[in-house]
Design brief:
Strand content: under 5%
Largest sheet: none
Shape: flat
Oligomer: single chain
Structural class: mainly alpha
Distance between the termini: 65 Å
Order of helices and strands: HHHHH
Number of helices: 5
Number of strands: 0
Amino acid sequence: MHIGEQIFWLVILSMVVACISWTVTQEEIFSEWREACSDKSKTCSSVLRRKFFYVFTCEYCFSHWVTIGVLVLTGFRLLIDDWRGYIIAFFLLPWIANQWMSLYRRLRVGIKHEDALAEQVKEETESS
């Protein structure tokens, strides 16, 4: 694959990793499951079990497991066309995915801040 194609696939696959990781670890649809995992990550007697359940509450940690799945499904390799390409892709895909998630989080915080300011202005104008 040419470098341009690799970059295209890297961007698209990192968005897939980010979307899956964010949805599982942050969105309401998985909240009950995430809360159960959070409780178990604090109360299990075994360190291995606590870490297993913690993975489902941390988008950074979970993105690495999603990356493994994406690499298995797609066979994507980066720069080198052997096992080393998988290793490079394994570290770069979640890094870029986490950049997307940070950008998304910042955007959502900005929108919530603007909504709160608009609500405050609305309340002030209604009370005067």
